[in-house]
Amino acid sequence: EILRATRAAVPLRCFGKLLRVHEAGTDSLYHLSYNTDRIQEFWSHSWHGCVWHKIAVLLVLKNGPPAVLAGILGSLLAAVLTCIGVPFPHLTATFADGTYQC
């Protein structure tokens, strides 16, 4: 029971709330971890620098590629729907002559 780990989603939940507001030295986070024989990735315990910078880096490393992929797919879907004429009433985009082209 010496080696414990947690999934990256746990400390990064709510934009790293556990990393921002938790007081070191308490046992209240013990239940968020589990016993393991090996750790895939180690995050340093040194938080002397800016916590927000470290949280931002962790969010990009752990969520960046899926977020980029979702953004690309969403924008492609919106472009295709716009090109085939699906109306987006909450969006109004016109050129200077009043036309909208795809």
Description:
The protein is mostly helical and 102 residues long. It has helices spanning 9-21, 51-83; strands spanning 4-5, 34-35. A two-stranded antiparallel ribbon has the order 1-2. Helix 1 crosses helix 2 (51-83). The longest helix is centred in the middle third of the chain and has 33 residues, at 51-83. The radius of gyration is 22 Å and the shape is elongated.
Instruction: Tell me the structural class.
Output: mainly alpha
The coarse overall form would be: elongated
Strand content: under 5%
**Contiguous helical run count:** 2
Task: Indicate the radius of gyration in whole angstroms.
Answer: 22 Å
Low-confidence regions: none
Helix content: 40-55%
Q: How many DSSP E strands?
A: 2
Mean pLDDT: 77
Terminus-to-terminus distance: 60 Å
Q: H/E series, N to C? A: EHEH
At a glance:
With 102 residues, the chain is mainly α. The protein has helices at 9-21, 51-83, and strands spanning 4-5, 34-35.
Set out the fold topology.
Layout: E1 4-5, H1 9-21, E2 34-35, H2 51-83
Antiparallel strand pairs: 1-2
Helix pairs in contact: 1-2
Descriptive labels:
102 residues; mainly alpha; 4% strand; elongated
